[in-house]
Amino acid sequence: MDEKAGRPHTSHGVHTLRTALERLEARWERQQRSAPLVSSSQLRLLYALETAAGSNLRELCAALGSAAPAVSRLCARLEAMGLVRRAYSARSRREIELHLTGRATAYLRELREEREQFLATVLDAMPDGDRAALLKGMDGLRRSLDPPGPGLTENSVSRSA
């Protein structure tokens, strides 16, 4: 039983959700108009920077749950691609902040637009009652995944990616 909510959850429900998410992910990848610009790890980093612009490497490591060398390599690749820029911090000239470039912002906007168009097609194919139930449930799921407050936390990044 899920003691926090006071309601039982079943392994069948968890399995159904996981299966649906896996199929959704696979369909998103297949329907993309072009080859993905970034890997899933790079995309998570872009989402993290979108959520908390100006993060430093240490903050990104904590948020992504990754080691500094791996995050540093991701940042270097994204910088070489023109998606991330480094800047000195206003707080300390010894600290480097990371920011999305306009190209990264445009990429994320286009990716979301493609995904939303795909989802609209899927939702349109569903019976009205199923669609309403799904949307209500997804709104509850989204709220449970939203971070409790401002700032960059491990949960906010893993939830957004």
Topology, pairings included?
Blueprint: H1 11-31, H2 40-51, H3 57-64, H4 68-80, E1 84-88, E2 96-100, H5 102-124, H6 128-145, H7 154-160
Antiparallel strand pairs: 1-2
Helix pairs in contact: 2-7
TL;DR of this structure?
The chain is mainly alpha-helical and 161 residues long. The protein has seven helices and two strands; from the N terminus they run ααααββααα.
Question: What would your notes on this structure say?
Answer:
By secondary structure, the protein is mostly helical. The chain has 2 domains: 1-31; 38-160, Orthogonal Bundle (Arc Repressor Mutant, subunit A). Helix content is 63%, strand content 6%. The chain contains 7 helices and 2 strands. Strands 1-2 form a two-stranded antiparallel ribbon. Strand 1 and strand 2 form a beta hairpin. Helix 2 packs across helix 7 (154-160). It is globular. Mean pLDDT is 83; it is low at 154-161.
Overall mean pLDDT? 83
Number of helices: 7
The beta-strand count equals 2
Secondary-structure element order, as H and E? HHHHEEHHH
Helix content: 55-70%
Regions with pLDDT < 50 over 5+ consecutive residues? 154-161
Q: What general outline do the C-alpha atoms trace?
A: globular
Structure classification = mainly alpha
